[in-house]
C-alpha cells in the first residue's frame, strides 16, 4: 500500500516533492519495502556481538520477537539453540523462510517461524531467553508495549532473560540526519532521519542515492516512524510491568546523535 508523500516531514519531504508524482512511497516493512530492508539488514552487524554474549549466558530455547528477515535469527541459530522467530509482516516471514531454507541442513530445522503480533501472542512452551533487537520495541505504542511485557512475562522460564535494545537520540542543531548506506547488493541508499528535540517520534525515510536515481520512471521511497524511548524511561516502564533490568550494555553508536543500549531484564 502506498503512503502520501505529503506526510513526510523535513528534508526527506522536500526531496520527495522534487520527484513529484514519480514517487512510490511505501512503508519500510511492507511488500515493496521488505527487499530493501533485507538488502540493508544483510550488511548490518549492529548489536549482534553484544546480544550473542548475553544469550550465551542463559542456556535453553530462544524466542526472537520482530525477527524480520532473520538478521539476528541466523546468528542465534548458529549458537546451536532452538529458536522460535515471531514476525508480523507476511513479506518478512517469506524472506525469513527463504533464508532458513537456504541455510545448511540442521540450522533451519531448529527454527520455528510464527507469523504473529509481539504485543499479543500465545505460544506453546516457555523460553530461557526472549530477544527483541534492533530497537523494535519503539515500533509499539504504550498499549502495545504493555501487551508485549505481559506476553514476555508469560513466556519466560524462571531465571530467564528478556533482552531488548533501545536508542537514545541527542538533540542537534539540524533536525535532519542525512546518511548514505550501501546494501548487500551494492545498491546505494540515502537515509534521512527527521527528529527535533522533544518529539516523541523520529521519521526515517530511505530513497535511492541521488546519483543513482534515474531521470525518469518511478522512484521507490520507504518510510517508517520510530518512537524515541530513552533507556531510563524504558527501565522504569519495564519495572512497573514486573520486569526488572539487571544489566545494561552500551552498543556502538550508529551515528553522532544515537546512543544504543541493550537491556537485560528478568521477571521481578
Ligand atoms: C527494525 S525491524 C527488525 C527486524 C530484525 N530483527 C532485524 O534486526 O533486521 C522490525 C521488524 O518488526 C516487525 N514488526 C513490526 N511490528 C510488529 C509487531 N507488532 N509484531 C511483530 N513484528 C512486528 C517489522 O515487520 C520488522 O520486520
TrEMBL record:
Return the Pfam families for the record.
Answer: Methyltransf_25
Top-level division of the source organism's lineage: Bacteria
Q: Which CDD domains match?
A: AdoMet_MTases (cd02440)
Residues annotated as domain Methyltransferase: 62-160
Database matches in Gene3D superfamilies = Vaccinia Virus protein VP39
Protein name, per record: Methyltransferase domain-containing protein
Q: Which organism is it from?
A: Streptomyces glaucus
Amino acid at each position: 500500500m502506498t503512503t502520501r508523500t505529503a506526510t513526510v516531514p523535513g528534508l526527506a519531504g522536500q526531496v520527495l516533492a522534487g520527484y513529484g508524482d514519480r514517487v512510490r512511497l511505501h512503508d519500510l516493512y511492507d511488500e515493496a519495502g521488505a527487499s530493501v530492508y533485507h538488502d540493508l539488514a544483510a550488511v548490518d552487524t549492529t548489536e549482534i556481538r553484544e546480544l550473542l554474549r548475553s544469550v550465551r549466558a542463559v542456556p535453553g530455547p530462544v524466542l526472537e520477537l520482530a525477527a524480520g528477515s532473520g538478521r539476528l535469527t541466523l546468528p542465534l541459530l548458529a549458537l546451536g539453540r532452538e529458536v522460535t522467530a515471531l514476525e508480523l509482516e507476511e513479506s518478512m516471514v517469506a524472506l525469513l523462510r527463504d533464508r532458513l531454507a537456504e541455510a545448511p541442513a540442521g540450522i533451519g530445522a531448529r527454527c520455528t517461524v510464527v507469523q504473529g503480533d509481539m504485543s499479543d501472542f500465545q505460544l506453546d512452551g516457555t523460553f530461557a531467553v526472549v530477544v527483541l533487537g534492533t530497537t523494535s520495541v519503539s515500533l509499539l505504542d504504550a498499549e502495545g508495549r504493555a501487551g508485549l511485557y505481559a506476553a514476555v512475562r508469560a513466556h519466560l522460564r524462571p531465571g530467564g532473560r528478556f533482552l531488548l535494545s533501545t536508542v537514545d537520540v541527542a538533540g542537534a542543531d539540524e533536525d535532519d540526519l542525512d546518511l548514505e548506506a550501501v546494501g548487500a547488493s551494492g545498491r546505494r541508499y540515502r537515509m534521512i532521519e527527521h527528529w527535533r528535540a522533544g518529539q516523541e517520534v523520529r521519521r526515517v525515510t530511505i530513497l535511492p542515492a541521488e546519483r543513482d536515481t534515474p531521470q525518469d520512471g518511478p522512484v521507490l521511497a520507504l518510510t517508517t516512524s520510530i518512537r524515541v524511548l530513552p533507556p531510563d524511561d524504558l527501565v522504569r516502564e519495564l519495572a512497573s510491568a514486573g520486569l526488572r533490568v539487571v544489566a545494561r550494555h552500551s552498543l556502538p553508536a550508529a551515528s553522532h546523535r544515537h546512543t544504543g543500549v541493550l537491556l537485560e531484564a528478568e521477571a521481578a
